[in-house]
Structures are given as structure tokens and as C-alpha cells.
Amino acid sequence: MTEPAAAKPKPPRPKQNPALKLALEMGPLVLFFFANAKFGIYVATGVLMASVVAALAASWLLTRHVPIMPLVTAIAVLFFGALTFIFQDELFIKMKPTIVNCIFGVALLVGLAMGKPLLPVVLDSVMRLSEAGWRILTLRWGLFFFLLAGINELVWRTQTTDFWVSFKVFGTMPITIIFALAQIPLIMKHEIKDEDEPEHW
């Protein structure tokens, strides 16, 4: 009696160049900034809507994969952008970062409370960490998303539209990058390497 053939492992997903990934995430914001400076918030919102779709399409063509965070962000941009045009009220596009960051924060913390860390999915991560490492990192990112939501609320409610747009490009992204870099020691401490895996005899 012959043994059933072992299932073939899935081919690894093509990895996106970090610089290209950053460019696809920053590109729509940069275009949003320049369009707002030249044409105002409504034209800039339309540019943002078109550019996030283009960035998702580029990501799919390059990797045959659409990351969760950019996908959720793009859906929110299209939804709140449409409301901005329908009601001719920039309030909707300004509230988008608050709502999206709260969604990510709630998803991470609820998943953590249920014993199911969702951070690898939310951040499209290929890292391999210990269970304790994922818990700590998930808690930090969950709280950080709420911090971003609070900062966005503070900025758009107290500053001009032009300042808010500038802060999205030159404030939010650098803060996020600095926070991510600050997690490197934790990641290195809890990372599971191939040689750490027990041998199977």
C-alpha cells in the first residue's frame, strides 16, 4: 500500500523591497500634500483616493499580495473621501486617520485579550517571534495606534487644514518609523531563528 504523497509546501510569497514598500505607502501622502498646496483639500482628496488605489495595484502586480494595512487604509480613504465630496465637508477625510487607527488598535488589543495576536496579519509581518514577544509587541502597537488616533484628533481640531495635511506627511510617518525602530531590541530578543528550532528525529 503506497503512502499518500506529501502535500507540496506553498511557495514563499515574494518579498517586497523595503524601500519600494515605503515608497508605495508614502507616495499617496506626498501627492496629497502637493495637491493640497496647489489646488486645495478637495482636489487633494481626489488625488489621495486615486493614488492609494494605484499603490495597491502596484503592490499586487509586484508581489501578488495585498497587505492588510494598506488595504484597510485604502478602503477608508475611498469611503471617507467619497463622503467628503458628497457633503462637501473636509471633516470626513480628517477623521479617517482617527477611525482607521482605532480600528487597528481595537483589533490588536481584542485579539490579544482572546489569546490570538493579530499583529503579524495587521503589519503583514514575516518575522518569527516567541509567544511572549508577539504579546508584548502587539500590546505596544495596539496602544500606539490609539496614540496616533489621539494625535490626529488634537491636530485637526486645533490647527488649520494645511497644517494637518503637512503633519500627516512630515509628522505621522516619522513618528511611526521612530516607534517601529524602537521595537528592534524587543524583536531581536524574542526572534526565533532556524537554529533555535528543536530537531525532529
Describe this structure in words.
The relative contact order is 0.10. This protein has one domain (18-192). Helix content is 74%, strand content 0%. It has eight helices and no strands. It has 201 residues and is an all-alpha fold. Helix 2 packs antiparallel against helix 3 (68-87), helix 4 (91-113) packs antiparallel against helix 6 and helix 6 packs antiparallel against helix 7 (161-182).
SSE layout:
Layout: H1 18-39, H2 41-63, H3 68-87, H4 91-113, H5 119-122, H6 131-158, H7 161-182, H8 184-190
Main attributes?
disordered N terminus
Question: Care to give the gist of this entry?
Answer:
The protein is mainly alpha-helical.
Task: Tell me roughly what share of residues is in helical segments.
Answer: over 70%
- N- and C-termini, Cα separation: 24 Å
How many distinct helices? Answer: 8
Low-confidence stretches: 1-7, 196-201
Number of individual domains: 1
Structural class based on helices, strands and sheet pairing = mainly alpha
What overall geometry do the principal axes of the alpha carbons give?
globular
Spatial extent as radius of gyration: 20 Å
Number of strands: 0
Instruction: Summarize model confidence as the mean pLDDT.
Output: 85
Beta-strand proportion: under 5%
Taking the sheet with the most strands, its summary is: none
Topology order in helix (H) and strand (E) letters: HHHHHHHH
